Amino acid sequence: MTIKHLLTMTSGLHWPGNSGMIPSKNWVNFVLQQSIDNPPGNEMVYSCGSSQLLSAILQKTTGLNTEVFAKKHLFTPLGITDYKWNFDAQGIAIGGFGLTMKTADMLKIGTLYLNNGRWKSKQIVPIHWIKESTSPNVKSNDTFSYAYHWWNKQFDNQVGRIFFAYGREGQYIIVAPDYQLVTVFISGIKDETTRPLNYFKVYLMHYGDSQ
Prior knowledge:
Elements: H1 3-7, H2 18-21, H3 27-32, H4 48-62, H5 66-78, E1 83-85, E2 99-101, H6 103-114, E3 118-119, E4 122-123, H7 127-134, E5 138-139, E6 144-146, E7 151-153, E8 162-167, E9 171-176, E10 181-185, H8 195-209
Antiparallel strand pairs: 1-2, 3-4, 5-6, 6-7, 7-8, 8-9, 9-10
């Protein structure tokens, strides 16, 4: 199993869901103790456990927890100061959920990716990482592909593609490079959480086609 397998949700580890991990006393141990359902790299299964392992690895290798690392290298350069990031019982920043921030700051992250990692003339994230981390790597189903924690979708008759970050209850950062467009949705949708993508297609993509 490699870091790339964790990034693309293809670790092969069984995932019983957040309801299995959250009550456990040690989240990292819980994930590592799961059985192997598939050989690593064979099948994409979305798992917050994979994200938790990535956060733990980042903390171990850098000596900084993920929140502090992100503040130093991403949030502060972007001017993001008002956010909350929750931790597990071992003090590891939660990798798969638990981060909240302002809509305007979500837009900053999308704009950073639209501009290939540059912010106010400064290269914050390497260009090669922007391209690699957002390019389709594994198919999730007939509709979506997955990159490194970014989703990809190709709409019918759309020029180019979109990639997007997706959070609970329909939170989205959508980047459409060919339209030079970043769109943020915040919502509390309990079902059909892909509705914002449909709104994006109907109300924004069609408008862009007419320009």
